[in-house]
Amino acid sequence: MTTLKGEHIYLRALEPEDLEFVHNIENDENIWELSNTQTPYSKFLIKNYIENAHKDIFEVKQLRLVISSYEDVTLGMIDLFDFDFKNKRAGVGILVKEPNDRLKGYGKEALKLLINYSFKHLGLHQLYCNISENNDPSIKLFTNQGFERIGLKRDWNFVDGSYKNEYIFQLINN
Description:
174 residues; alpha+beta; globular; GNAT family N-acetyltransferase
């Protein structure tokens, strides 16, 4: 599928070989704030998740894709979540795992590919994302792809003993 192939990376479905990668991400407390996770996930649960990842987005309301280099290095993941067929919208989440792989354009390319796929193949009208107000790299990534900040959720997330505000961004398919 050429829609999911970019110049430097491509997006692919989860494979059984991704178990360790997904397990490491889901159990990395440094990024739990991004996913609102509070408890670790077992390899058994993640294995079951990967085994069912082939199910249709219309059934499970989400789609998780791996961001991979053409050298087959797994760089991160990008998700559609809260897929709403009736209103033709979905949330977007993205993570490039290793800090030394960030700010190299992989996230930008992955987001462009996902936007194109969402609008062209899934027929979505809009995408949205939620970003902590102090996450400048993510704000820049999404705004550079046309997402507009449409609101502020005050004291939205309780992190490390205090509340943090969160922005909501939206991209409408014209």
